[in-house]
């Protein structure tokens, strides 16, 4: 005798042991998709197994050391300076001091290390904007953000139906906010000076 | 030389910079003929990666011609056309000796957790990148390889990261014949991972994104079924329904730090920088994979903590496999697949920008305008 519950008993995983049936056979997949199964054997996959010692190596046991012409910050977790390193944008100014402190004081395992580095990034970019105003090429938020390209890049159609439209105004705040805040601060300062006179 | 430079969050421009020089006997200087913007470059552009310095030149996907070589370089000659893996690696440290080229210990003094990467902040070693006319290439005898004559620049440049990473991501998923594979993210890496999953014998491939043009590409280029998370209240439930309640055998997370689909996660991570990355896609992967399944994580995250649902990962007995792709290790087999027509890299290229228009290129990629999937950057 069957009951309604028995009628609803599932016939496959996850409630029974059998896998759901394949929708297409290997032959059908091979006919439809170029190269289907070419790497079916894990031995044909270049990163199998993950660690291999039979791959080509450099001819040196340890590379020559790059010349160090100025102090180079390094992670506390490195026992020594690596033999090769990037020399772009060495530490400088207030942001450089924050970064140096972060590298000398906190390991990679400490949130303070990364938060200080992010803070230094903001200090540096803010200072760079102010410095640029006194240069022959001041920062131009319009050209440097690329927003002028919106007009010929289908701005409305490109955003239709997207969930990220909800928070895209925050992008404007992130970019324009510091400029607006700086402008307001300047206005307040000028007003204060004028009132004192 | 002309080079893209970072000026602060959301701001880039082209400036005149000194040409790079040989700084180590095994360096080369490469004149860039074609570069690309990677989805992970957007994390730098948006100010998410710690120690991204003003003046830094981004770009870890590039091909070019050798312009100078250091005195100890034996494998390359001036004039060689080369593709350069995004990983900078020595070929001799503990990790390189085991094929873990992306984890090299001899090239990044700023951190031990990540190897060296061109143009990817000082957290990956402080090397300027290839969105420029010239770039310094350390360990010229180890990383770069001559581009085969039959391979155009626009295909070769995708070998340097996006294609190799997608292919590697599919390998990390441990796909067996007949497996159902879900790929989260239909950007370049996700598309290549989806296409590669078939090579490893997948029985079904389902790609999830919210952008219709990318989902269309996933159907046409990667032969995949698609789901838009913008059309479903709960994409995890939809994926469970699509897999008969079981969950996918393997999930490849190809989104990373700026994942959308959860307002709180996205805003705290991508806008307020209070997390190393928004783990929305990673959490969906953990929820959508079947118990005992594998999650392959190709999405890039910052070094700070992220709010990951690790309890579910533990309770479900998942295998979570990750790494930056050791690119050069993929090349011999990848070149076979490209030559056989199994993988067609430049099919995903949608835009080409002159270097001088770099700000427009970043904005179009960042705001996902104009059907953009993969933009290339061509120096003058």
UniProtKB/TrEMBL annotation, chain A:
Record's protein name: Uncharacterized protein
Keyword annotations of the record: Membrane, Transmembrane, Transmembrane helix
Region (Disordered): 1-74
TM segment ranges: 172-194
Domain of life: Bacteria
Organism field: Cellulomonas uda
Comp. bias regions, Basic and acidic residues: 20-30, 42-74
Listed Low complexity bias regions: 1-18
Automatic annotation (TrEMBL), chain B:
Keywords on record: Metal-binding, Oxidoreductase, Zinc
One Pfam family named in its UniProt record: ADH_N
Positions of the Enoyl reductase (ER) domain: 8-369
Cofactor (UniProt): Zn(2+)
GO molecular function: oxidoreductase activity; zinc ion binding
SMART domains assigned: PKS_ER (SM00829)
CDD domains attached to this UniProt entry: FDH_like_1
NAD in keyword set: no
Keyword Metal-binding: yes
PROSITE patterns assigned to the protein according to its UniProt record, in alphabetical order: ADH_ZINC
Family classification: Belongs to the zinc-containing alcohol dehydrogenase family.
Protein's name in the database: Glutathione-dependent formaldehyde dehydrogenase
Species of origin: Cellulomonas uda
